[in-house]
Design goal:
The protein is of the alpha+beta class. The chain has eight helices and seven strands; from the N terminus they run H-E-H-H-E-E-E-E-H-E-E-H-H-H-H. The protein has a domain of 178 residues. A hairpin with a 5-residue loop joins strand 3 and strand 4. The longest helix has 38 residues. It is rod-shaped. The two termini are 103 Å apart.
């Protein structure tokens, strides 16, 4: 995992990952090489053209001094070119440009790491600058104008800048659609019923009964009420039986009979 990956948020997707073009170290070192070449040509002309004109000794001494200085400058320029090539190569390996579904990130730094990013929705414009050599080798500079105080995010010597910008515009449109689309609230989840340990053990031990289709129950007709006359006649028979057995006296029988008949 690179340092740039450690800066990603949860569920943030990397859409494009680029480094500077491999020409970047050569361009940095090439400036010093160009200085060395120019100084060398000037020294060569002073040593072989000006001195060959038969100038005096004082002039020749001055030309020799300038020639020595020119050779020293040439050597120093070549040394700086070598150092610049090594240092810029290290920078090229540690610098990354990331396009995610949320932002544009620029991570750089060899010893001390530095990262800058711009949210897709905050980028107002993007411009491309492709030099003549970049058209041949396939690199250029991308500049993102933002609404922040910094106002500008620069991606120097990035590979395929046109493709990078196209993918950036697509990611920005998707991000704006995602932000502006209302989200429906999810329905509340009912809390499960709390079961006691004995109920859980019983439910686990009991075998699952097969599902049986139960026909709908037919309505039961209410029973007709028993007439009060039938129950009174039965009681009178019981009382007459008790009278005949001598348990009740005729007077008690008549009193009970009058009482029952009075309830009708």
């Amino acid at each position: 995992m690179t340092y740039a990956d450690s800066l990603l948020a949860a569920n943030e997707r990397v859409l494009r990952r680029e480094r500077q073009h491999w020409m970047f170290p050569i361009l940095v070192a090439g400036r010093w090489v160009a200085i060395a070449v120019v100084v060398f040509v000037v020294g060569f002309l002073l040593a072989n053209v000006v001195k060959s004109n038969g100038t005096g000794g004082a002039v020749n001494s001055l030309l020799d001094l300038l020639n020595s200085i020119i050779w020293i400058v040439t050597v120093l320029a070549l040394v700086f070119a070598a150092i610049g090539l090594v240092w810029s190569t290290i920078q090229w390996q540690t610098q990354e440009y990331l396009l995610t579904d949320r932002r544009v990130m620029h991570v750089k730094g060899v010893i001390n790491k530095q990262s800058t990013d711009s949210s897709l929705e905050n980028v107002t414009d993007a411009s491309i600058q492709v030099p003549w050599l970049g058209r041949i080798m396939g690199f250029g500079d991308l500049e993102f104008m933002t609404a922040a105080e910094s106002g500008l995010e620069e991606l120097r010597t990035v590979k395929s800048p046109v493709e990078f910008k196209k993918q950036f515009m697509e990611a920005k449109n998707e991000r704006l659609v995602e932000i502006n689309t209302p989200r429906m609230p999810s329905p509340p989840i009912a809390a499960p019923a709390v079961m006691s340990p004995s109920m859980v053990a019983t439910a686990q031990a009991a075998p699952a009964a097969p599902a049986v289709a139960v026909p709908p129950a037919e309505p039961i007709a209410p029973e007709p009420p028993v007439p009060a006359v039938s129950s009174t006649a039965d009681e009178l028979r019981e009382l007459a039986k008790l009278r005949d057995e001598g348990i009740l006296t005729p007077e008690e029988f008549d009193a009970k009979k009058a009482e029952l008949l009075g309830k009708l």
